[in-house]
């Protein structure tokens, strides 16, 4: 999470209507189909798409013309022993074949360009949409599923489009044109083809009805294995510390087995119906040869016509077989498209209002008034009627037992979630009426779990203020008590940090996260238990530096340690989501039993006083 909350805008207007995403596994709405998805995203790629269709049309017509030329060459050239006729018509056939191959190559090229462009746009819009999601939508979908939808699901749709564009003109024109030309060669034998095509169509129907549920199960299994892998990689240190390698291996094996089983179900369907279709095609060819041999024997058919008829039969049945390949891919692609649509059509819970405030009149006065909040699906509210104020130049502390709602309260202030009741105001303006970029400039949050991005220390510190110079960075590091260890690093500010900050200690990570927020220079600072990994001496030095360097800003500190917040101007005591006391350390120690119990559990009587 960044030190400040930047405005995240997508490619679509903020007020574009969206539906709420159904839970994964439910049937997608009718509009969430692959056809709608392709229609929406292929519009910018009309030119390569049109060229692909034109070249596929040329390739198909050329492939249909070659068997007729071949029959004519055999009947009138080879059978008659006319070498000149053979050479002349053979050269023409070669020219037609070259045109066919060139058209096929260009058709595939332009089709791939359209498909790859669609994939690029889909991934970009998915990323932009996820950027606009609030924490509630992120929790609803889950990180592993969002990653799968942006990668694997998009790949499924693009693969379907590449194959579909390749066969868009080929299959129907080949089938219709081949049948028409076959009729001109021999009407009775065309009945064999007409009998085979319905059988193929029935096979396609069973493929589609069988593959849709199998494809949905397979995509869910991919989500599952991504979830296990992500947790394993992220939590590798915890796994090693508790020697839970076997447990994690068992979890992975379960997820891997589910994916394997789902893939095998898909493979069995494809293998069975593929073999059935191949058998039907071969039996049709045998029937054509059997009947054709008799007709040649009685003189009602020429050998060239039989060869041409066999070629047309191969083209027709081949086009049906290729169509079957598309229909095998279509169910998985449809499921993938539906899952992508769920993300794109989900209404972000937090959006800028059309008349959002872009500037504040004051210096950063924070008022939390009667706030109520309940997580989605929860029976009980986490916060009930919470009040809190923070003024420039003052420090407001929040303390309470685990689960009291402290972190939730801090997350409501920069509008990571919308309040369910009451209001959060900055300088008298409700944060729901503020532009998110203004919230980012005004409120800086150092989260409970400090997160650093892959890159250098400097790039992480400039995350909230890209224009900050090195002097500003060093000043922030000095305040955060991080300057010394950064100077000791081989490359100083240019030292590379691993993803998540795993290449530095927990205390160093917290101090770098604090420095990142200081570089952003907001009016209101929110520290969510941001000193928990620091030793007592560093904690005290950091708080003293903050009191001097951001003396004009309002500070809200959530902490577990009484020593961290005892000098605050105002302490708010939370218990089970309610404010049960507000005052200074001395006042609360005398009048508030909840606060006194927390103090007595951490400090001796002499230390408390």
TrEMBL record:
Residues 50-332 form the ABC transmembrane type-1 domain. Keywords: ATP-binding, Membrane, Nucleotide-binding, Transmembrane, Transmembrane helix. Residues 15-26 have a biased composition (Basic and acidic residues). Residues 1-28 are annotated as: Disordered. InterPro entries: AAA+_ATPase, ABC1_TM_dom, ABC1_TM_sf, ABC_transporter-like_ATP-bd, ABC_transporter-like_CS, P-loop_NTPase, Type_1_exporter. It is found in: Cell membrane. Its main location: membrane. The keyword Membrane applies. CDD domains: ABC_6TM_Tm287_like (cd18548). Residues 366-601 form the ABC transporter domain. One of its GO terms (molecular function) is ATP binding. The chain crosses the membrane at residues 49-66, 86-110, 157-183, 189-208, 271-294, 306-330. The keyword Glycoprotein does not apply. Pfam families: ABC_membrane (PF00664), ABC_tran (PF00005). It is a multi-pass membrane protein. PANTHER family: ATP-BINDING CASSETTE SUB-FAMILY B MEMBER 10, MITOCHONDRIAL, ATP-DEPENDENT PERMEASE MDL1, MITOCHONDRIAL. This is ABC transporter ATP-binding protein. It comes from Glycomyces endophyticus.
